[in-house]
Design a protein that fits this description.
It contains eleven helices and eight strands. It is of the alpha+beta class. It has one domain: Outer membrane efflux proteins (OEP) (Up-down Bundle). The protein has a four-stranded antiparallel sheet with strand order 2-5-7-8, with no helix packed on it. A two-stranded parallel sheet has the order 1-6. Strand 3 and strand 4 form a beta hairpin. Helix 2 crosses helix 4. The chain is elongated and about 130 Å long.
């Protein structure tokens, strides 16, 4: 009895974990969940905070140094820690003074690194948001294609079941039964591949939204808003100008150039030795009792003048300058190509008759009825079913490619022109 109860609870737990919970979701809702829950964004926010803390560190002055010395053993007196007239105590207090504006240069470097981390945060946000929106629409259109397979598989299964009831009666040829079953198995195999594709995209989207594995997202799109998308709405110059201002990867390249310039100035400042001021006290070791003196020390830059680091920093400026120019060229080409793609995909989508899918679906049902009544041959029936499937899949692919092209414009310009 105990074993039975334990087995019951284990099976209940397994069933609870494998129960799929379908979540209907609109795009604005998905984006809000993403902003609130994504762990990668949260981690990057902590990186920004860490860089801000380094500004505080850069502003701090070097600590003064205090040194105290007392006699440990007197060989004359044979005594540890001699006191009174026989003891000797010294003390020094020193302070490092940074020269050549090193402290201010460190602060500027820390501030530039904060700016860089913020741009990295927004670049991560831009990339993840693009993936979210693209996956969202991809799942929707793939699910529409899956409905076609589901409908056709059910219809063919219905015919196969009817054939099974008439098996051995001589009404249906074995060749025809095999042909129908072959088409059914082919559709089932393709349907299984499509479901795997949907689940792969679902997995990526659930990771972005931090949803539990048992959730199944059913996107709910605004068809009217999508149909109103128009690539003529914004000129190429407008899109390119926006990309120059808002593309975070370009801002990162520019900030890296700034950081390398600041680092070059800092490395040159490091070539200047720092000054150490000191105050010393000697109880009896000097020519005067209770001697108090001041001093200053500085390294002589004879050998190490930070030559290697200065040369490296200068080379990094050239590296970042070239990288920035390359990124700018990439930005302009990305925007231009994405706009071309949007025009092409939009023209292709507009060439499709809106009644095409509906008419095809109606004809599909008529073909099924006519085949069941033996008014058409098996070849005509299967050819139409395959044509129906291919055309609907193509329409869904064209619609997704169109939406994806507009999402590319948003991504490459760093601005939600088409939302």
């Amino acid at each position: 009895m105990i074993i039975f109860v334990a087995y019951f609870f284990i099976q209940s737990a397994i069933n609870a974990q494998t129960t799929v919970d379908t979540v209907r979701m609109r795009l604005p809702e998905a984006e809000k969940i993403f902003i609130d829950s994504n762990l990668q964004l949260l981690a990057q926010k902590y990186n920004v905070d860490a860089q801000k803390a380094l500004i505080i560190q850069a502003r701090l002055w070097p600590n003064p140094n205090l040194g105290v010395s007392h006699g440990l053993y007197s060989g004359t007196l044979k005594q540890f820690f001699p006191t009174g007239a026989n003891d000797e105590t010294t003390a020094t207090l020193s302070q490092l003074i940074l020269l050549a504006g090193k402290r201010n240069k460190q602060i500027k470097l820390a501030e530039a690194n904060v700016t860089l981390s913020e741009y990295q945060f927004f670049d991560l946000l831009r990339t993840l948001k693009y993936t979210l929106r693209t996956d969202f629409f991809n799942i929707y259109y793939l699910q529409q294609s899956a409905k076609v397979y589901d409908t056709e598989i059910k219809a063919l299964q219905q015919i196969v079941d009817a054939f099974a009831q008439q098996e051995g009666k001589g009404y249906i040829s074995e060749k025809e039964v095999v042909r129908i079953k072959a088409q059914l198995y082919s559709f089932q195999s393709e349907y299984n591949d499509l479901i795997n594709q949907i689940n792969d995209v679902q997995s990526e989207l659930k990771l972005i939204l931090q949803l539990k594995p048992n959730k199944y997202i059913a996107p709910d799109i605004d068809a009217t808003n999508i149909s109103n998308l128009d690539p003529n709405k914004y000129s190429l110059n407008t899109l390119v100008d926006s990309a120059y201002k808002n593309r975070t990867d370009l801002q990162i390249a520019r900030t890296n150039t700034t950081i390398n310039k600041l680092n070059y100035n800092y490395q040159k400042a490091l070539a200047v030795p720092d000054l150490t001021l000191s105050l010393g006290y000697d109880e009896q070791g000097s020519f005067l009792a209770n001697f108090l003196g001041i001093g200053a020390s500085i390294d002589l830059p004879l050998f190490n003048r930070n030559q290697g680091n200065i040369k490296s920093a200068k080379a990094m400026i050239e590296f970042s300058n070239i990288n920035e120019k390359s990124t700018m060229a990439t930005v302009e080409e990305n925007v231009n190509r994405s706009l071309q793609k949007a025009f092409t995909q939009n023209k292709m989508a507009q060439s499709i008759d809106n009644k095409f899918a509906t008419d095809f679906e109606r004809l599909m049902h008529e073909m099924l009825i006519n085949y069941q009544k033996r008014n058409i041959s098996i070849l005509e029936f299967l050819d139409f079913y395959d044509s129906y499937k291919q055309n609907i899949l193509q329409i869904n692919s064209i619609q997704f490619n169109r939406v994806s092209a507009f999402e590319d414009i948003n991504y490459y310009t760093g601005t939600n022109f088409f939302n």
